[in-house]
């Protein structure tokens, strides 16, 4: 075990993290979305989506369509919301949207910012959901919400790093 | 020499590649299959007996702002449709919705709003036959009022798959109706 070997290992690790980061950012560029892959966190779109389902977003549509499932962000609220477009009003310059969760009784008006009646298609959307993959995102939910899983996984990685460095 | 980390890495990579290829194949085949089932040319839908009602609402959750009452629109309708072609092995559910499309008072303004929707999860439930059904939603306009305008009702659908792409479409039948006006108290 010499210094050169350890440095090479460090380099490999940096390479793995960097390539993942570059791939993520490239996907963001292609889809024009700052978060092109989204994990569903709530049951408000049941039975279509459950917690942990993965959505691929696309944000280059000129207009949203009624029935589209869009991901939007509200100023001052950090969590993006995945809901369906209930109404759209568009002119040549802009499009206004009202959304609703399939599993909610009411539209999203109470979720919007104070005084906000509609979403702006250009500025409020993170993207439109185009592709669906079930359940796999539950790993990230476990990582953020379950302490045992998080530290268990970290511990396992640490142990394997120690054991394999011969 | 292969150590544990290498083995796990290779296994993960291969699984990821296999799952990606399989997912892409499933997504492609299900869209092609829908196309050949003719889902974008369903013309057996019938929307009729549309009755429009207008009413005033004072709550913010019905579009009223600054205490001024807002005109809301409601409809009753008959609907029959056969959406069984939308169901195949990769259809988890379909979301069926009745929309009205209309031009605004302002030039160039166009809107599409949902009056009624339904989630269907089984093929057996995909034939709809509604008599004098009430709209699920009260609808208000982005402008002040609907008065004096015509709208076209359409039955649209969206498929949520078990895995793959979301597919949207509408049935080929449209039905026109005129928005009602609020009755003034004399």
Automatic annotation (TrEMBL), chain A:
<keyword id="KW-0645">Protease</keyword>
<keyword id="KW-0472">Membrane</keyword>
<keyword id="KW-0735">Signal-anchor</keyword>
<dbReference type="GO" id="GO:0005787">
    <property type="term" value="C:signal peptidase complex"/>
</dbReference>
<protein>
    <recommendedName>
        <fullName>Signal peptidase complex catalytic subunit SEC11</fullName>
        <ecNumber>3.4.21.89</ecNumber>
    </recommendedName>
</protein>
<keyword id="KW-0812">Transmembrane</keyword>
<comment type="similarity">
    <text>Belongs to the peptidase S26B family.</text>
</comment>
<comment type="function">
    <text>Catalytic component of the signal peptidase complex (SPC) which catalyzes the cleavage of N-terminal signal sequences from nascent proteins as they are translocated into the lumen of the endoplasmic reticulum. Specifically cleaves N-terminal signal peptides that contain a hydrophobic alpha-helix (h-region) shorter than 18-20 amino acids.</text>
</comment>
<dbReference type="InterPro" id="IPR001733">
    <property type="entry name" value="Peptidase_S26B"/>
</dbReference>
<dbReference type="GO" id="GO:0009003">
    <property type="term" value="F:signal peptidase activity"/>
</dbReference>
<dbReference type="GO" id="GO:0006465">
    <property type="term" value="P:signal peptide processing"/>
</dbReference>
<feature type="domain" description="Peptidase S24/S26A/S26B/S26C">
    <location>
        <begin position="23"/>
        <end position="96"/>
    </location>
</feature>
<keyword id="KW-0256">Endoplasmic reticulum</keyword>
<keyword id="KW-0378">Hydrolase</keyword>
<dbReference type="Pfam" id="PF00717">
    <property type="entry name" value="Peptidase_S24"/>
</dbReference>
<dbReference type="InterPro" id="IPR019533">
    <property type="entry name" value="Peptidase_S26"/>
</dbReference>
<keyword id="KW-1133">Transmembrane helix</keyword>
<comment type="subunit">
    <text>Component of the signal peptidase complex (SPC) composed of a catalytic subunit SEC11 and three accessory subunits SPC1, SPC2 and SPC3. The complex induces a local thinning of the ER membrane which is used to measure the length of the signal peptide (SP) h-region of protein substrates. This ensures the selectivity of the complex towards h-regions shorter than 18-20 amino acids. SPC associates with the translocon complex.</text>
</comment>
<dbReference type="GO" id="GO:0004252">
    <property type="term" value="F:serine-type endopeptidase activity"/>
</dbReference>
<dbReference type="InterPro" id="IPR036286">
    <property type="entry name" value="LexA/Signal_pep-like_sf"/>
</dbReference>
<dbReference type="InterPro" id="IPR015927">
    <property type="entry name" value="Peptidase_S24_S26A/B/C"/>
</dbReference>
UniProtKB/TrEMBL annotation, chain B:
<feature type="transmembrane region" description="Helical">
    <location>
        <begin position="20"/>
        <end position="42"/>
    </location>
</feature>
<keyword id="KW-0472">Membrane</keyword>
<keyword id="KW-0735">Signal-anchor</keyword>
<dbReference type="Pfam" id="PF04573">
    <property type="entry name" value="SPC22"/>
</dbReference>
<dbReference type="GO" id="GO:0005787">
    <property type="term" value="C:signal peptidase complex"/>
</dbReference>
<dbReference type="GO" id="GO:0045047">
    <property type="term" value="P:protein targeting to ER"/>
</dbReference>
<comment type="similarity">
    <text>Belongs to the SPCS3 family.</text>
</comment>
<keyword id="KW-0256">Endoplasmic reticulum</keyword>
<dbReference type="InterPro" id="IPR007653">
    <property type="entry name" value="SPC3"/>
</dbReference>
<dbReference type="GO" id="GO:0006465">
    <property type="term" value="P:signal peptide processing"/>
</dbReference>
<keyword id="KW-0812">Transmembrane</keyword>
<keyword id="KW-1133">Transmembrane helix</keyword>
<protein>
    <recommendedName>
        <fullName>Signal peptidase subunit 3</fullName>
    </recommendedName>
</protein>
<comment type="function">
    <text>Essential component of the signal peptidase complex (SPC) which catalyzes the cleavage of N-terminal signal sequences from nascent proteins as they are translocated into the lumen of the endoplasmic reticulum. Essential for the SPC catalytic activity, possibly by stabilizing and positioning the active center of the complex close to the lumenal surface. Essential for viability.</text>
</comment>
